UniProtKB/TrEMBL annotation:
Belongs to the GART family. Residues 3-187 form the Formyl transferase N-terminal domain. The keyword Transferase applies. N(1)-(5-phospho-beta-D-ribosyl)glycinamide binds at G12, S13, N14. It comes from Ferruginibacter yonginensis. Its EC number is 2.1.2.2. GO terms for molecular function: phosphoribosylglycinamide formyltransferase activity. This is Phosphoribosylglycinamide formyltransferase.
Length: 196
C-alpha cells in the first residue's frame, strides 16, 4: 500500500478530482490518499478532505527557517507513513531535505509548458497572464518530479491546448483546468505503478 499525501494551498479542485478518480486507475489496496496537507487554514481543500473522511494537517510555516520547516514536514509525513507526495496547487517550496528524502516520489502539476513560464512567483493567473502577454499560440500543463528548484524537476508528462486571440487569463485557466482534471490522476497512477 502506497500512502499518498496531497498538498494544496487553495480551493483544491485538483485534489478533489484525484480523490474521486484515483481508484479508477489503481486499486485501494495499491494506493490511497492518507492525508491532505495545507499551509492555509482557510483553504477550500479542507472541506474536500472532511467530505471524503480524509485527515487534514494544517501546517504553519510562517517565520520559520528551512530547518524548522523541514521538521514540520517530516513530523506529519512520518505520522501518516507517507510514501508519495502530490503537489496539487501547493504554493510553498518544499525544503531540499524533503526532496532528497523522497527522490522521484514528489510530483507537481504546473499550469504551463515548462521550462517556460515557471519559477518563483509563476502560479495561477500570473502564468496565464504571462502566456497571453507573450503572444503564445499554445499553453498546457506539465506534470513533473519535484527537486529543490521551483518547477525544475524531470518532466513526466505534458498536454497542450490552443491559446486563441480572444482568450483571457480566465478563459485560458478554464482550458488548463480541464487538462489538469483529465490527466493528473491518470499520470499519478502510472507513476505509482511504474515504481512498484
Amino acid at each position: 500500500m502506497i500512502n499518498i499525501a496531497l498538498f494544496a494551498s487553495g480551493a483544491g479542485s485538483n485534489a478533489a478530482v484525484i480523490i474521486k478518480t484515483l481508484h479508477q486507475y489503481i486499486t485501494p489496496q495499491e494506493a490511497n490518499v492518507a492525508v491532505i496537507i495545507t499551509n492555509n487554514e482557510n483553504a477550500g481543500v479542507i472541506n474536500i478532505a472532511h467530505a471524503n473522511n480524509i485527515p487534514v494537517a494544517i501546517i504553519n510555516l510562517k517565520k520559520k527557517d528551512e530547518a524548522a520547516q523541514t521538521d514540520i514536514y517530516q513530523t506529519v509525513l512520518e505520522q501518516y507513513n507517507i510514501d508519495f507526495i502530490v503537489l496539487a496547487g501547493y504554493l510553498k517550496k518544499i525544503p531540499a531535505a524533503i526532496t532528497h528524502a523522497f527522490p522521484q516520489q514528489i510530483i507537481n502539476i504546473h499550469p504551463a509548458l515548462l521550462p517556460a513560464y515557471g519559477g518563483p512567483g509563476m502560479y495561477g493567473t500570473k502564468v496565464h497572464e504571462a502566456v497571453i502577454a507573450a503572444g503564445e499560440q499554445q499553453s498546457g500543463i506539465t506534470i513533473h518530479y519535484v527537486d529543490e528548484v521551483y518547477d525544475h524537476g524531470a518532466i513526466i508528462f505534458q498536454a497542450t491546448c490552443a491559446v486563441e486571440a480572444t482568450d483571457t487569463p480566465d478563459s485560458l485557466a478554464q482550458k488548463i483546468h480541464q487538462l489538469e482534471h483529465q490527466w493528473f490522476t491518470k499520470t499519478i497512477a502510472q507513476v505509482l505503478q511504474s515504481q512498484k
